Amino acid sequence: MIKLDRRKFLLGSAATLAAGSSASALPASKLAQRHQGYGAAATLWDLQADPRLGEAISTYCTQVVPVLELKWPMLRPDAHTFAFERADAIYDFAQKNDLTMRGHTLAWYHDIPDWTKQIKDSKAVERAYVDHISTVVSYYKDKLTSWDVVNEPIPDNPRDVKDRRDTFWTQHLGSSWIPLAFRTAAAADPYVKLAINEYDIESAKDSFIAKRAAYRNLIMELLDQGVPLHAVGLQSHLHAELEIDTHGLAEFVTEIRSWGLEVYVTELDVNDEKLTGSPTERDAIVAKRVNDLLTAIWTSGPVRSILSWGISDRYSWINGYVKRPDKQPNRPLPLDGEFKPKPLMDVISKFTKDV
Ligand code: XIL
Questions:
Q1: How many degrees, rounded to 5, is the angle at CA 139 between CA 170 and CA 88?
Q2: pLDDT digit string (tens) for 284-339?
Q3: Before 105, cis peptide (omega within 30)?
Q4: How far is Cα 133 from Cα 155, in angstroms, rounded to an integer?
Q5: Which of 57, 249, 319, 320 is 20 to 30 A (C-alpha) from 41?
Q6: Which domains does the chain have, with CATH numbers?
């Protein structure tokens, strides 16, 4: 493992890539307007290109999470380098704006750099995996509130509750890749909350119900093995045409909490590609889906962390991935493309008032 000079990294980052505006504490009146526990994901590119984005996050949010900057490809250009500068710049932005920051993500089937995938020897893969998690979590020790340690471990359409996603990590480390990631992270920072994170478990479709059951089973197995897992992330990349499975989701969340775990909403947005109708009609359905989601989760208590994957439709990943048949932009987030609040922001406001 290469030696890191923590102080050098911190000074270097502060000097070069700050994305925030002023370096002072914000006025109390501004802080009081924020939706407690609400946060948004952002890339450094977007923060630097458009000051309205940072302004919106600092107006509505109490936390932020980097979209790309803590993933392997951006942190690890090669086997010997840890390039923390871009993530540090988002951390600087958070500090300057009195926001907390989450970490996303340490172990994922996706976004593994080519140099890593070219390692053929399983022992060497394990060394690279442990080195990465240990170095990155140590570097941000005492700075982040929580980490998405393992992201998306369940396949779509699982065959049964034991089904797990086949990943580069499983090919080399078998099922131990998940406990190993959590144990390594906990050893590097004993206080940060460690989360597992999954998508497509919120609706009533059969494949979602199956995925939720497999997720539940995995969480139970990890707890049985004494794995240091503290929180369960519901990504909540919702599909506007699908109803929320309010009953099933409420039951799932209640059970997870009865095991002593926290529940976070980690990547909220609502893809409206299958909705017809005017923007106003679409926005109303989008807001209703999130209202149903949060109502279901709230049956067993409030959620202290709700993050959307972006804050303005202008900077949503969905517009880069899917195109509506009518060529209109998707409207998945709480603010529109001009940073005006939509009904979805009212829903978030309602659920984050007294948390
Ligand atoms: C997405 C980013 O938003 C995209 O810009 C990138 O190209 C791919 O990753 N689930 C996750 C996030 O956990 O990391 C993904 O982010 C969106 C789905």
A1: 105
A2: 999 999 999 999 999 999 999 999 999 999 999 999 999 999 999 999 999 999 99
A3: yes
A4: 23
A5: 249
A6: 3-352 (3.20.20.80)
CA distance 200 to 291: 17
Annotation marks residue 267 as catalytic:
yes
Q: Are strands 103-108 and 193-198 parallel, antiparallel or unpaired?
A: unpaired
Question: What DSSP assignment string belongs to 66-82?
Answer: ESSTTSHHHH-SSTT--
In order, the DSSP letters of 225-287 are TT----EEEE--EEETTSPB-HHHHHHHHHHHHHTT-EEEEEEEEEE-TT--S-HHHHHHHHH
Question: 110 C-alpha to center of ligand 1: Å?
Answer: 9
| pLDDT tens digits for range 55-76 | 999 999 999 999 999 999 999 9
Helices (runs of H) and strands (runs of E) counted in the chain? 15, 10
- One-letter amino acid for residue 256 of the chain: I
Mutation test of ligand 1: which of 47, 67, 148, 330 has the most ligand atoms closer than 8 Å to its C-beta? 67
Reported pTM: 0.93
- Cα–chain-centroid distance for residue 238? 14
Q: Does ligand 1 come within 6 angstroms of the Cβ of 135?
A: no
Options 267, 273, 281, 338, the catalytic residue: 267
Max distance between CA atoms of the chain, in angstroms, equals 57
